[in-house]
Amino acid sequence: MRALLAALVLLLTLPAGALTQPAEERVFGVWRLSCLPPGHSARPRQAAPGQPFCRLGQIVTVDPEGRQAVLAVSADFLEGPDAPGLRFEFAAAVQRESGLALRVDDLPELRLPISGCNARICQAAGRMVPALQQRLEAGRIARVNLLTSDGRPLTVPLGLAGFREGLAALREVQPRP
Predict the structure, then answer these.
(1) What share of the chain is helix, strand, coil (3-state, %, to 5)?
(2) Least enclosed by CB within 10 Å: which of 1, 59, 74, 92?
(3) Domain extents for the chain?
(4) To which CATH superfamily is domain 20-173 assigned?
């Protein structure tokens, strides 16, 4: 009875979210592979039921403590097992019609439309075609370019160290149809 009471007290005093931590988390350079178990509340609705949902991601911050995120980038297989999707999330204070530009090293930039926004966050997403995947895997640094709502350019550096290894690990843990 005491053990049951102690367990109940422990459960009630855990910080919010402590029981919903990813089932698996691995780091590849500046990228993090996170997997959520079936039934996890943070899983996307499109994730295959009964299967873990995994994504490779990076959050870019502007402060040394890592509290002020300016960009979140993730790769996943929500759209299907053939080619990963690439998603960028950022503050909604941008010019939506100008989209997002991604430049890897000194290669020409690629443009993505902003696919949706709510009051706080916008998202640009697309399939990672082989040419883009090769650029990201071979690159050292990418730059994400946006225009703020008042027309000022915003450039956010995106480290690519570990991307190749992280994407390979994401493919390995991805459930097969």
Answers:
(1) 20, 40, 40
(2) 1
(3) 20-173
(4) Invasion associated locus B (IalB) protein (2.60.40.1880)
What token pair was written down for 49?
């039921």
CA distance linking residue 150 with residue 108, whole number of Å: 25
Q: What is the CA radius of gyration of the chain?
A: 18
What residues form DSSP beta bridges with 154?
146
Residue ranges of the chain whose pLDDT lies below 50 = 1-20, 22
CA distances from 82 to 1, 128, 159 (A): 52, 10, 25
Backbone angles phi, psi at 22, to 5 degrees: -55, 145
Element (H, E) at 25: strand 24-28
pLDDT at 3: 32
For residue 50, what pLDDT is reported? 79
What pLDDT score does 36 carry? 87
